[in-house]
């Protein structure tokens, strides 16, 4: 693309692309904010619905951009805040003079500014923010806080207490491995550290693993509720007797081809929640695991509303995640949805799939001829039609990984009727307060906390002045 370009041309192209990128992001967020305004005027009664206008718009954003519900929700939140509270900063963003990093931090640092003051602050920031593009994150934060304090001292953000930032994550890493770690209270971390040290020390001196490897394996044994770590020296006379009595039954689910389990293939398996699992890890787990075949469902629909255990197992492995466009919520937390609502639709693999609770409610309560609709093929493909008429198709994740699960099941006859109850909205789970009321309550709590902190700092300053002040001699 730039084979004949000189350094100056390359710098110009890079600068132009960066400005275009910012303008495109601003335009995208403007469209999201406008969609939110339109839907808010249409879904007037949805304010106290559990799946409210915010979730309804996030569903449309998720499907249109093929992104997760979490990322879509972040866009909706950012778009609404930017174009409702900081429209002049948004205009600077649209010109390409600032980037999304600056916009995100500006929104965060001005979130608790009073609504009666935010317009003045918006104008002041829009005149100056371009000059701050070269600032680091910390310098930009300080400059934003300085201007918030000029207009609304109670709106300066209060840093969270250290203990409120504790977390512990377990996330997939390279195939067959995962990352586990986080921030704990000092007491909990000390207890965990000592427990891992003690368990790592329960093997004999001939165990081939390093100390760090034994600590990592001890974390797995601890997760299974085992009392000691099994030694891997391989000796018949090993002095380390691993009692390994489980305090609780822990079950993990692995999907694999029969040929992989038997050693006739090296195709990988799948560990639920963690992704692809190498063949050797599959076979190692299979040596002590309970093996249960995934059975293809029969051609005849089941008679009840709830799928049988056999059908539920098949649907679980075929889908693996929520089937809504862009959503990757694990199937363990999803509902089984009848593509044609029960009792007009039947309980069968060709007419049921998984939706997470939010997208299940979206389809149920924002559906109908002018709302969300879907259709399903016998191979598990789901076609989703948005309220705008846009069409999105999703493939079952498990069927994509294991083609055997994509084999078509029985075709279903068209339903005779799909008339829905007229009072359907009465069945929607409800909130005690709207999302906006929750936001305002949270902001008011933080503003009160800032006022109290400032008052305490002033009290301490006055006390210090009183202690150090010496009257002049006469």
From TrEMBL:
InterPro entries in UniProt: DUF222, HNH_nuc
Bias (Basic and acidic residues) ranges: 435-461
Region (Disordered): 404-474
Pfam families found in the cross-reference section: DUF222
Domain of life, per lineage: Bacteria
Coiled coil location: none
Residue stretches making up the DUF222 domain: 17-319
Protein name, as recorded: DUF222 domain-containing protein
Organism: Mycolicibacterium gilvum (strain DSM 45189 / LMG 24558 / Spyr1)
């Amino acid at each position: 693309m730039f084979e004949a370009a000189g350094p100056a041309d390359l710098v110009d192209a890079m600068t132009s692309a960066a400005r275009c990128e910012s303008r495109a992001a601003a335009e995208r967020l403007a469209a999201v904010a406008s969609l939110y305004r339109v839907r808010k005027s249409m879904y007037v009664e949805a304010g106290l619905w559990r799946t409210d206008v915010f979730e309804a718009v996030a569903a449309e954003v998720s499907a249109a951009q093929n992104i997760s519900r979490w990322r879509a929700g972040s866009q909706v939140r950012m778009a609404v805040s930017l174009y409702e509270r900081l429209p002049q900063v948004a205009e600077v963003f649209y010109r390409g003079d600032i980037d999304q990093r600056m916009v995100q931090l500006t929104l965060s640092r001005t979130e608790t500014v009073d609504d009666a003051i935010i317009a003045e602050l918006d104008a002041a920031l829009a005149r100056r923010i371009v000059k701050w593009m070269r600032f680091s994150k910390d310098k930009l934060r300080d400059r934003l806080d300085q201007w918030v304090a000029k207009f609304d001292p109670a709106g300066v953000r209060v840093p969270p207490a250290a203990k409120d930032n504790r977390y512990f994550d377990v996330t997939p890493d390279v195939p067959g491995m995962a990352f586990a770690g986080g921030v704990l209270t000092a007491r909990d971390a000390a207890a965990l550290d000592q427990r891992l040290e003690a368990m790592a020390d329960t093997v004999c001196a001939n165990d081939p693993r390093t100390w760090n490897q034994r600590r990592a394996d001890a974390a797995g044994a601890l997760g299974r509720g085992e009392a000691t770590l099994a030694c891997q020296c391989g000796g018949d006379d090993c002095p380390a007797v691993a009692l390994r009595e489980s305090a609780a039954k822990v079950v993990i689910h692995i999907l694999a081809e029969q040929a992989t389990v038997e050693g006739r293939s090296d195709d990988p398996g799948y560990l639920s929640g963690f992704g692809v699992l190498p063949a050797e890890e599959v076979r190692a787990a299979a040596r002590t695991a309970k093996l249960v075949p995934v059975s293809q469902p029969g051609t005849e629909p089941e008679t009840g509303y709830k799928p049988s255990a056999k059908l539920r197992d098949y649907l679980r492995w075929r889908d693996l995640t929520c089937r809504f466009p862009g959503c990757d919520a694990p199937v363990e937390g999803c509902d089984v949805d009848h593509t044609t609502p029960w009792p007009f639709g039947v309980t069968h693999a060709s007419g049921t799939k998984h939706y997470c609770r939010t997208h299940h409610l979206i389809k149920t309560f924002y559906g109908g001829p002018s709302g969300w609709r879907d259709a399903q093929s016998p191979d598990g493909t789901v076609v989703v039609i948005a309220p705008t008429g846009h069409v999105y198709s999703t493939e079952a994740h498990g069927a994509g990984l294991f083609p055997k699960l994509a084999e078509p099941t029985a075709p279903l006859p068209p339903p005779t009727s799909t008339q829905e109850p007229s009072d359907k909205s009465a069945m929607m789970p409800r909130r005690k307060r709207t999302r906006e009321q929750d936001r305002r309550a949270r902001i008011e709590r933080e503003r009160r906390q800032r006022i109290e902190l400032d008052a305490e700092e002033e009290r301490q300053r006055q006390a210090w002045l009183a202690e150090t002040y010496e009257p002049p001699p006469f």
